[in-house]
Every structure is written in structure tokens, then in C-alpha cells.
Specification:
Elements: E1 8-20, E2 22-25, H1 26-30, H2 37-44, E3 48-51, H3 58-73, E4 80-84, H4 96-102, E5 108-112, H5 118-131, E6 137-144, H6 155-158, E7 164-174, E8 181-188, E9 196-197, E10 206-207, H7 209-230, E11 240-243, H8 248-258, H9 269-272, H10 279-290, E12 298-305, E13 309-316, E14 323-327
Parallel strand pairs: 1-14, 4-5, 4-6, 11-12
Antiparallel strand pairs: 1-7, 2-3, 6-7, 8-13, 9-10, 12-13
Bound molecules: oxa(dethia)-CoA.
């Protein structure tokens, strides 16, 4: 955007995460499942994942990540709490109002259900509410405890998913501010609803992994390309691609199709696995803490998951320092 008065935009001013303390390695899993470290690592890139302690729910991780994000932003209040999750603490009411209360907030609060794309959907919705003037400052949280819905005897999913939460603070600013969300796009294809689902009447998640894999690669590539173009960026302009951490091979394929070198691909899947709605903020926090993502960098965040849903956001990073917590 050019001109003396850049248009209003939602701006990221804080980033926080919370991971459960308990680490489950591939070797731990192979003691109970017909699998092994080499298969898991070579097919997914995952080495370990975190698992919430019994009694720890999505709201616990979400509240801790939310508090961490507010601390990172140097703020103690906001007027919107948006929680993206597939594993709410209860079917009714939503978990977000309880998270808001635990943070001492009487903010507008609601849950959003878009499975692994939930964080990008949440970011987009909160940004729209901010630029429309509905709220000033939002806490967007992606939190999931997939250990509560994964069948521990299903090696196709039990090795893939981990628990965690990540959050950002978004506030009203201008398009030329560091942290500005410049463009976002979302999509869905409900004909793929059965590919990742908890079937009616069942308790556990099922995933047709190979079919999801193929669609993830093509859809994430198209979505990332389209949001970069809308932001006016060529591939060379993208400093870092922060994709949903579902599979290292998916990230590598998307990067190759986009023409991005491996060092511009953010990845923490080895340490946390697929944490669903928490995946992108957790990856972003690790990259920011490691200096892989720096102030002024042009980031493309791209998610894909159940629904099927997908989405991308083009963000110029700020000097935001992530605050990372752990809890049981
Ligand atoms: O987060 C939302 C989006 N999700 C995704 O994007 C996930 C996308 N899908 C994937 O990441 C991969 O499909 C998986 C990691 C889930 C599975 O990897 P794959 O390379 O697609 O394996 P596959 O399901 O095609 O299975 C290949 C073989 C099968 O054996 P046969 O039929 O060839 O004898 C499976 O039974 O590997 C077997 N297998 C395993 N072997 C050892 C499947 N899971 C395991 C396992 N350990 N954990």
C-alpha cells in the first residue's frame, strides 16, 4: 500500500505457546504399536511429540498460551478471544469464554471449528473484526489435545498427532506496521469430509492419510502462491514459509513446487508432530526464537486439514519475542 495514510490492518504484536511437559518418542510408541522409529521418521519427519497429562484439557493449554501471548505483547487485556480447536473441553458451551475468564477478561469469546486450518481461519476472522471496528485487540488461539480423540491402537494416526497450543495477539494498526497481516484467503471442499473425521457415533478420529497427503500438497501450493501474489510478492520475496506441520514430506513438496529453498521452510515437526490448530503458531514461535524469522521478513502461513479446509495468510513479521511455556 502506498500513499501518506496506509490503510488500517490487523497487526501481530504478541506470540505465545504452551506445550505439555510429557514427551512421547517414536520408540515409546513402538513398544505398544506395530511401528518403528525409522518408519515414522522417514515417512513423516516426526521424532517425538508432546502429550497432555490426564486431566489437562484444551482450555488449560489455551489459557496458558493466551497468557504467554499477552505477556509477549506487553498487554493484559483484549476484547476478543477466538479459540480454534477440534477438541473443546465440552460440546456445550464453547471453551473460549472459560479461557477468557481464566485470563481475567470479559471479552467476546467463541470457538471456531476448522480442524488443522483453524488458526489461519481464526487469524483471518479476527483481522476482519479488527479492521471492521468490531474489536480493538484480539487473542487468536489454536489449541488441540488430539490424544483425547486419537485411537492409540491406530498406527496411521497415533504416531502423527501431538498436543499443544499457540496464540497471537492481533491489534488494530496500519498496513505498513511491522506485524501487519496484508492478505488472507480461505477455502473448503466438503466433498472430502470423510477423509479426516470422527465418524458419527464414534469417539476416535480416522484419517485416509494417502488421499489427504496428495490433496494437501496441491492445495497448499496453490493457496500459498495465491496469497503471495495477492500481497504482491514473488517467490523470491518470501523469506519464510510457515506451513501446517502435518508431514515433513508435504512441506518439502510444497516448497519445491513453490521454488523455495529448504532453508526458507519453517519446520518443528520433528519435536512436536502434528498439533492440528496449534501447529502454525508453534512453528512460528520456534522459528522466531531461533532467529530463522526476523523483523521485516515476509511470511506465508499456509494450513490444510479436515473439512477439507485450507487457508493462507501473508504477514510481515515484527520484532515480537515469543513467550513459550510448558505445563503438565
Ligand atoms: O493435519 C491434517 C492434514 N493431514 C495430513 O496432511 C496427513 C497427510 N498424510 C500423511 O502424512 C501420510 O499419509 C501418513 C503419515 C499418515 C501415512 O504415510 P503414508 O506414507 O501415506 O503411508 P500409507 O498410509 O500409504 O501406508 C503405507 C504402508 C501401509 O502398509 P502396506 O499396506 O503398504 O503394507 C501401512 O499399513 O505403511 C503402513 N503404515 C505403517 N507402518 C509402520 C501405516 N502407518 C504405519 C506406521 N508404522 N505408523
Amino acid at each position: 500500500m502506498t500513499g501518506p495514510h496506509p490503510a488500517p490492518a490487523a497487526v501481530v504484536t504478541g506470540l505465545g505457546t504452551c506445550l505439555p511437559e510429557s514427551v512421547v518418542t517414536n520408540d515409546d510408541l513402538s513398544r505398544h504399536l506395530d511401528t518403528d522409529h525409522d518408519w515414522i521418521h522417514s515417512r513423516t519427519g516426526i521424532e517425538r511429540r508432546r502429550r497432555a497429562a490426564p486431566g489437562t484439557g484444551t482450555g488449560d493449554l489455551a489459557a496458558a498460551a493466551g497468557a504467554a501471548a499477552l505477556k509477549s505483547a506487553g498487554r493484559d487485556d483484549c476484547d476478543l478471544v477466538l479459540l480454534a480447536t477440534t477438541t473443546p473441553d465440552r460440546r456445550c458451551p464453547a471453551t473460549a469464554p472459560t479461557v477468557a475468564s481464566r485470563l481475567g477478561l470479559r471479552a467476546a469469546a467463541f470457538d471456531l471449528s476448522a480442524v488443522c486450518s483453524g488458526f489461519v481461519y481464526g487469524l483471518t476472522a479476527a483481522a476482519a473484526m479488527i479492521t471492521a471496528g468490531t474489536c480493538e485487540r484480539a487473542l487468536v488461539i489454536g489449541a488441540d489435545v488430539y490424544s483425547s480423540i486419537v485411537d492409540p491402537t491406530d498406527r496411521g494416526t497415533a504416531v502423527v498427532f501431538g498436543d499443544g497450543a499457540g496464540a497471537v495477539v492481533l491489534e488494530r494498526g496500519r498496513r505498513d506496521d511491522a506485524g501487519a497481516l496484508l492478505h488472507a484467503e480461505l477455502g473448503s471442499d466438503g466433498t472430502g469430509a470423510d477423509l479426516i473425521t470422527i465418524p458419527p457415533g464414534a469417539d476416535h478420529l480416522t484419517m485416509r492419510g494417502r488421499e489427504v497427503y496428495t490433496r494437501a500438497v496441491t492445495t497448499m501450493t496453490a493457496s500459498a502462491r495465491s496469497v503471495a501474489e495477492a500481497a504482491g510478492w514473488s517467490t523470491d520475496d518470501i523469506n519464510a514459509f510457515v506451513g501446517h506441520q502435518a508431514n515433513q514430506r508435504i512441506l518439502a513438496s510444497v516448497a519445491k513446487r513453490l521454488g523455495l529453498p529448504p532453508e526458507r521452510v519453517v519446520s518443528n515437526i520433528a519435536d512436536v508432530g502434528n498439533t492440528a490448530a496449534a501447529s502454525i503458531p508453534l512453528a512460528l514461535a520456534d522459528a522466531a526464537a531461533a532467529g530463522q524469522v526476523r523483523a521485516g521478513d515476509r511470511l506465508v502461513l499456509t494450513a490444510f486439514g479436515g473439512g477439507l479446509t485450507w487457508g493462507s495468510a501473508a504477514v510481515v513479521w515484527s520484532d515480537t519475542e515469543p513467550v513459550c511455556e510448558t505445563r503438565a
